C-alpha cells in the first residue's frame, strides 16, 4: 500500500463526509426527528421522516466504510496489531467488501491470504478442453522400443550359499549374533562372551573380502563362510 493511495482514499472519504454534511440535516436534528417519528410525520410530513432515515443510513454507511478501510490498512502491519486488524476485518467486512477495500487502498492480494482466496473464484477461467487431434508431445517414431524379453536362464534374486553352513545376511544381522548362533549350534551349550568375541574375529577374518574393513557393516545378501568351513 502506497502513501499516495492512502492519502487519496482518505481525501475521498473526507469529501464524501462534506457532501453528507451539506445534503443531510445536522445530527442533532436527525436524532430529534427519529426520537419521535409519529410527531415528525404529523407536523413536518412523512417526507421529513424519510429524509431523516436516509441521512442516518448514509452516515452509517460512511462510518462503516471508514472503519473497513482503516482495518484493511492496519491488517498490513506486522505483529499482533496486524493480526488483530485482520481478525476484526473478517468480522466487520464481508468478503466482497474486503476485496473492494484492498483494491481501493492498493494492497496486494498476496499481503492478506484470505483476500486472495476470496478473489480466486472470480479470477478463475474455464479450462480449455484438449483437442482430440492434439499432437502428442512425444512423436511415435521416436518412442523407445520396449526391451525384449529375456530368453536366458532366470537369475535368482537370492544368492546361493557358497559353502556348507554359510550364512546369508538379512536385514538386522550382526557378526556377534551370527557367531553366537554358530557356536550354540556347534556345541549345543551357551557360549561365553569371550568365546563369542573370538568367533566374531574369526568370521571377520574369514570373510574380510566380503565384509570389508568394518566388521559392524553388513549388507543384506552378503554370503559369509563359517571359519571352520575348511
How would you describe this protein?
The protein has 230 residues and is an all-alpha fold. It folds into 2 domains: 3-122, no CATH class; 167-229. Helices cover 58% and strands 2% of the residues. The protein is built from 10 helices and 2 strands. It has helices at 3-23, 27-35, 37-43, 46-74, 79-92, 95-105, 113-123, 175-187, 193-206, 208-211, and strands at 167-168, 223-224. It has a two-stranded antiparallel sheet. The longest helix is centred in the first third of the chain and has 29 residues, at 46-74. The model is unreliable at 109-132 (pLDDT under 50).
Summarize the structure.
The protein is mainly α.
Write the H/E string, N to C. HHHHHHHEHHHE
**Count of runs of 4 or more consecutive helical residues:** 10
Q: Count structural domains.
A: 2
The number of E-state strands comes to 2
Question: Low-confidence parts lasting 5 or more residues at pLDDT below 50?
Answer: 109-132
Mean pLDDT rating: 73
- Measured distance between first and last alpha carbons: 85 Å
Determine Rg (CA atoms, Å): 43 Å
Approximate helicity band: 55-70%
Within the largest sheet, what's the order of strands?
1-2
Class computed from helices, strands and strand pairing:
mainly alpha
Largest sheet: 2 strands, antiparallel
Portion in strands: under 5%
Could you say which overall geometry the principal axes of the C-alpha atoms support? rod-shaped
Give a topology summary:
Layout: H1 3-23, H2 27-35, H3 37-43, H4 46-74, H5 79-92, H6 95-105, H7 113-123, E1 167-168, H8 175-187, H9 193-206, H10 208-211, E2 223-224
Antiparallel strand pairs: 1-2
Amino acid at each position: 500500500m502506497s502513501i499516495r493511495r492512502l492519502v487519496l482514499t482518505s481525501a475521498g472519504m473526507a469529501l464524501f463526509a462534506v457532501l453528507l454534511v451539506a445534503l443531510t440535516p445536522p445530527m442533532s436534528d436527525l436524532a430529534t426527528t427519529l426520537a419521535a417519528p409519529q410527531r415528525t410525520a404529523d407536523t413536518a410530513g412523512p417526507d421529513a421522516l424519510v429524509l431523516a432515515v436516509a441521512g442516518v443510513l448514509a452516515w452509517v454507511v460512511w462510518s462503516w466504510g471508514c472503519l473497513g478501510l482503516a482495518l484493511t490498512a492496519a491488517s498490513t502491519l506486522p505483529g499482533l496489531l496486524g493480526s488483530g486488524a485482520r481478525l476484526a476485518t473478517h468480522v466487520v467486512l464481508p468478503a466482497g467488501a474486503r476485496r473492494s477495500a484492498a483494491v481501493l487502498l492498493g494492497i496486494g492480494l498476496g499481503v492478506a491470504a484470505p483476500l486472495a482466496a476470496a478473489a480466486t473464484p472470480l479470477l478463475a477461467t474455464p479450462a480449455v478442453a484438449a483437442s482430440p487431434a492434439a499432437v502428442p508431445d512425444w512423436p511415435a517414431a521416436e518412442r523407445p522400443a520396449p526391451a525384449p524379453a529375456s530368453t536366458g536362464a532366470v537369475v535368482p534374486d537370492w544368492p546361493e550359499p557358497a559353502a556348507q553352513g554359510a550364512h546369508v545376511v538379512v536385514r538386522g544381522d550382526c557378526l556377534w549374533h551370527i557367531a553366537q548362533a554358530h557356536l550354540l549350534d556347534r556345541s549345543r551349550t551357551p557360549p561365553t562372551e569371550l568365546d563369542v568375541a573370538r568367533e566374531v574375529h574369526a568370521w571377520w577374518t574369514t570373510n574380510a573380502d566380503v565384509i570389508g574393513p568394518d566388521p559392524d557393516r553388513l549388507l543384506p545378501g552378503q554370503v559369509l563362510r563359517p571359519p571352520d568351513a575348511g
